[in-house]
Amino acid sequence: MTDARTAAWMTRLRRRSMPFIGAAIFIVLWELFCQLYHVRPVLLPPPSLILQELSLAPLWFAEQAMYTLGITLAGFVVAAVLGVLFAVLITEWAVLDRLLFPLFVALNSVPKVALAPLCIIWFGTGAEPKIAIAFLIAVFAVVIDTILGLRSVPPDTIDLARTLRGSRWKVLTRIKLYCALPHLFAGLKVAMSLALVGAIVGEFVSSQRGLGYVILSAQGMFDTPRVFAAITILAVMGVLLIEAVSIAERLALPWHHSTERPAGH
Question: Measured between alpha carbons, how far is 179 from 133 in angstroms, rounded to an integer?
Fold first, then answer.
């Protein structure tokens, strides 16, 4: 029994360490390339210079990252709540599907950068327009995946529930939404990454804070190490946010195969 537990522990450790090993190899190769070929930092700074940039003002970078994180999470939450509600409405009422879904698709087809000036006119220059842009970019993924999940319930299951006198509300909450959870979490993972993109887009358009502002201001001064420092923080933030959604998925859906990982991987 002890050997089996040790083997299982080693397997989990190896599986969890693989991404870090891959990242370490990539960073070492990047550093060697910059040093061997004497690449100018203004074109491609080595990881050591990026780390030095981060170490010069860690609290300032942390403050900018927290601002961007707040915008991202706010846009994500609004997209998740309104996206699920909209998906439920257009799947439960065919009239709303025919009336609203084409308009929703048309709105999603418009580049969000083109809508950014309107968001600033409507909501001002504070956090609200950035949250709105993050919401607009992220909501489509939530709606599409939730609709797919709600419509993938076997008809026999719904017929059985109605035969047992299940109300429309109970069929929706206890069967349709429950069966749609795997698709919903898939959409939430995409929406989380898109909300981060939307937050950066909003900060590019109008902001005096956040990692998007850091990138834009550093680009104007050709401070490439600072640009890469902000991008590094964004990359780490994106991975952690997606992992947070994955953890929530494993807790909510321990029975679903998508939350399982083969023992040898």
Answer: 30
CB 134 within 8 A of CB 198: yes
Amino acid at 25: I
CATH label of the domain that carries residue 140: 1.10.3720.10
The pLDDT of residue 264 is 43
Judged by average pLDDT, the poorest of 8-12, 108-112, 164-168 is: 8-12
Q: How many domains does the chain have?
A: 1
Task: Flag whether the pTM goes above 0.90.
Answer: no
| In a domain? residue 15 | no
List, for residues 45-87, the tens digit of each pLDDT value.
Answer: 999 999 999 999 999 999 999 999 999 999 999 999 999 999 9
Give CA–CA dist 200/214, Å, rounded.
10
In a domain, 199, yes or no: yes
Q: Which domain holds residue 184?
A: 58-259
- Domain assignment present for residue 18? The answer is no
